[in-house]
Amino acid sequence: MTKKYTHLLFDLDKTIWDFDRNSESTIHEIYTLLDLKAKGITDFEEFHRVYEGHNLKLWELYRKDEVEKEVLMVKRFADALMDFGVNEPQTAQAFSTKYLEILPTRTGVFPGTQDALQYLSANYSLHIITNGFSEVQFTKLQNADLRKFFTHIIISEDAGAKKPDKAIFEYALRIIGAKAHECLMIGDDIEVDLLGAKAAGIDQLYFNPHRAKHQEELTFEVFEMKEMLGIL
Predict the structure, then answer these.
(1) Residue range(s) occupied by CATH 3.40.50.1000 in the chain
(2) Which regions of the chain carry the CATH code 1.10.150.240?
(3) Which fold has domain 20-105?
(4) Who contacts 117 (Cβ-Cβ below 8 Å, separation ≥6)?
């Protein structure tokens, strides 16, 4: 690599912390705990698929400031339950409460994450930039034994802006005391993580474990965590 970075900016969910695996196992646990089979929801995989659709739509609205955090947290479950004919606000609220309680205790990370972060943290200053909720993001990092690697945890709620708004990246640069050319943003979402960083003048590394096809011109792309070591 001909360019020397001093700061690496990481997304958390789906980049380091295996959100999809951790979330599905959490939802399955609560599905059993609340006995949704008895309410007529007999196919967990179908319920999870429906929930995912509602969750993605609501997160997109949240990033655009078109829905409040407190609404998102419950409505994603309420809408999924409603699609199966379960109109029970108390069940949706219980699902939301349990989800936010159990999810951050999960510790699944992508293969090679600990080794990669151990190496990178000895050579760079590492930081997190996340749109996730502060009440769960710190707990995730602590329980997965990841907090020790990162100097700053920058959360959109504190920054007053959400990725992909370049304002959150500019806020991060001020917090960590760095120039854009000294940083590399590492994330799994091209639109949210990488194009936002690009707009702020920050180079990008696309973590693409699913090998999704795309046409965007990005600085780097890797398919496994360990491949970052060949670049950095």
Answers:
(1) 7-18+109-231
(2) 20-105
(3) DNA polymerase; domain 1 (1.10.150)
(4) 16, 126, 146, 149
Nearest CA to 180 out of 199, 153, 195 is that of: 199
Our CA angle for 120, 123, 124, nearest 5°, is: 80
- Among 169, 163, 128, 139, residue whose Cα is nearest residue 15: 128
The answer to whether the pTM exceeds 0.70 is: yes
**171, 159 Cβ separation under 8 angstroms:** yes
Q: How many residues does the chain have?
A: 232
**Residue 82 burial class via C-beta count within 10 angstroms: exposed 0-12, middle 13-18, buried 19 and up:** middle
Note the CATH architecture for domain 7-18+109-231: 3-Layer(aba) Sandwich (3.40)
Q: At 220, is the secondary structure helix, strand, or coil?
A: strand
pLDDT digits over 180-232, tens only?
A: 999 999 999 999 999 999 999 999 999 999 999 999 999 999 999 999 999 99
